[in-house]
Amino acid sequence: MSEHPRTSREVRLAATPSGIPRPEDFTVAEAPVPEPGPGEVLVKNRFFHVFAALRTLIGGSVEGAPFAGLRPGDPLFGPAIGEVVTAPDGGPRAGELVAHWQGWREYAVLDAGGCEPLGDALPDPVAHLAQARTAYEALTRAQVRPGDVVFVSGGAGSVGSMAGQIARLVGAGRVVGSTGSPAKAERMVAELGYDAAVVRGAGPLDEQLAAAAPDGIDVLFDNVGGEDLHAALAVAREEARFVVVGALSGQMSERGGGTTASLELDSFQLVVKQITIIGYSNFGRSGTDAEWLDRYAGWLRSGEIVFPYVRVPGIENAPQALHDMMNGRHLGTVVVTLED
C-alpha cells in the first residue's frame, strides 16, 4: 500500500453567508485521510474547479437539483481531478488520474467502478475541468445553423469562454458575448474569437446588443438571465432559439441566497417572434464520452480552441478564489491546484 499522511485538509462551510460568500464564511480544516473499503479507491486531488453554482448549494440548493444544499460544518465539493493512491485489483492503477466530484479536499475515497482513467487524450489534464462539453451540447440543443448570429451571455466565464469558441466551430457566422468588464470585453475579442462584446453597466444592454448584432440574433446561449435575457429578446429574429444554461444574475447577486433568478419577460414578444426557450444542465454528471473527447482533444491540439483558466495554488487559498471568481476578477475557469 502506498504511503500517505494520516490527516489532510478540506474546505468546510463555516457559516451561511449573507450575500456573496466571503473567505471568512469558510474554514480550512484538518480531517483524517479516509480509508478505502472494498471496491473503493483512494485519490489525492491535484486540481479542483471553483464554480459559480456552489453559491446555490451554499444557499440551500433548489428543488429538483441533483445535489442537496450545504449546511455549516459540511465540506464543499465539486469537479476535481485526482491521482490514484491505492486501488483494488482490476481498478485504476496507482498514479493514474481520474475525474470525480469530491473536490475542495486533499484526499477522497471513490467507488472504483466509477473511476475511469483519464489517460493522455488531452494536452493538459486540467482541460478535463473545462465546460466545453456543456457548451457543445447546449449549442447542439439550440440547433446552431451555418451563418447564425449567436449571443453568449456571460461570455468571459467558465462556460461562456468555451461557448463563444465552440459556437464558431459548429457554424455560427457571428458571435457576440456579454460581460461586466471592459477589460474582459477586449480579451474576449482578442483571445476567444468573439466578433464583439457588450458590457453590462456601460449603457443600455439592448442598445449595445442591437449595435453589435444589427440584423438580430438567431441563438441565445444564456448563462446569466436578467438584463441579458431581456436584451436578447429585444433583438431576437423570428424563430430564434434560446438555450438557458445558467442563472448568474441570481448566483452573483448580493441579495438573496443565490437560489432564485426571477425576471419578467414580455410574452407577446415570445409569441410574435415564435421564440423557442429550452433549459439545459449536465450538473453533477460524471463519466467520459470517447467520441466527444476525441473531438475536443483535436480542437485543443490544433489550436482551434483554447482553454482559458487561472491557477490558484494551495487549498488554503480556495475560499479567496471563490470570492474573487464571484466578484468577476478572473476570465475563464478558476482552478485550485494541489500539486506537490
TrEMBL record:
<dbReference type="Pfam" id="PF00107">
    <property type="entry name" value="ADH_zinc_N"/>
</dbReference>
<dbReference type="InterPro" id="IPR020843">
    <property type="entry name" value="ER"/>
</dbReference>
<feature type="domain" description="Enoyl reductase (ER)">
    <location>
        <begin position="21"/>
        <end position="336"/>
    </location>
</feature>
<dbReference type="InterPro" id="IPR041694">
    <property type="entry name" value="ADH_N_2"/>
</dbReference>
<dbReference type="InterPro" id="IPR013149">
    <property type="entry name" value="ADH-like_C"/>
</dbReference>
<dbReference type="InterPro" id="IPR045010">
    <property type="entry name" value="MDR_fam"/>
</dbReference>
<feature type="region of interest" description="Disordered">
    <location>
        <begin position="1"/>
        <end position="21"/>
    </location>
</feature>
<dbReference type="Pfam" id="PF16884">
    <property type="entry name" value="ADH_N_2"/>
</dbReference>
<feature type="compositionally biased region" description="Basic and acidic residues">
    <location>
        <begin position="1"/>
        <end position="12"/>
    </location>
</feature>
<keyword id="KW-0560">Oxidoreductase</keyword>
<protein>
    <submittedName>
        <fullName>MDR family NADP-dependent oxidoreductase</fullName>
    </submittedName>
</protein>
<dbReference type="InterPro" id="IPR011032">
    <property type="entry name" value="GroES-like_sf"/>
</dbReference>
<dbReference type="InterPro" id="IPR036291">
    <property type="entry name" value="NAD(P)-bd_dom_sf"/>
</dbReference>
